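subagent[fold] <- orchestrator: predict structure for attached chain, return tokens only, no commentary.
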Amino acid sequence: MSSPFKVVIPARYGASRLPGKPLLECAGRPLIAWVWERARDSGAEEVVVATDDQRIANACRKLGADVAMTHERHRSGTDRISEVIEQRRWDNDTLIVNLQGDEPCMPARLIGQVAADLATCADAGAGTGMATLAYPIADADTLFDPHTVKVVTDAQGFALYFSRAPVPWHRDGFLGKRATLHPGVPFLRHIGLYAYRAGFLRRYVTWEPAPLEIAESLEQLRALWHGERIHVGIAAEEPGPGVDTLDDLRAVAQRLQAEASGGLAGDGAPPA
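subagent[fold] -> orchestrator:
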């Protein structure tokens, strides 16, 4: 039997690039409705939308979603989730998946996968409070794109580093040019889907942002800076795009409409 887990969806109104993003129409529904539906289909025992805005709360309650009102001061979704933990008085062993509110194309099975991955690490006594996913990179453009976060792991799948830079750097293959990717190197794209134990998050939010975190603008580096372990599973399928811009919103709407009509197919298996 799989371990029980909860999903918390941080959703704030004041996004700098797309204010009111969770409420923007996407394929005939508010964007947040698609995200909530993915979480609901994941097998989670509880799904909570954590927001700082009554308009988002009202829209989510119309869907039948459980809503937690949180403070507008939070710097990140992780901080917002930590407030939900205290509001709900979840114990330290509670397993929580952070599904970002702008990921309407995140497959439900990946939400369950990252939760199961963290549960397995805990059952094995690995002392891990955090897990995430990655997907193989198949082209050099993706590897060199600073908007695509890369991750390097050890032999057991624990993160060594996350970066916007092309890592690992193939010294001979990339010398003076962007060559094709070397087939023997595990280039991995990080997927921004996290599972935590509540006790880990209670520690995490007491730490100041780390220098590496500030430099890369990647909050997971705070955990590595403080010596915590992050397990990185290989995603069972490639997730669809998130929404950061209006162009993203249009592309996602077309994708969701194609899925609804059965026009988007594929086995979703990682490349060999």
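orchestrator: received. Logging for downstream: The chain is about 30% helix and 20% strand. Residues 108-123 form the longest helix (16 residues).
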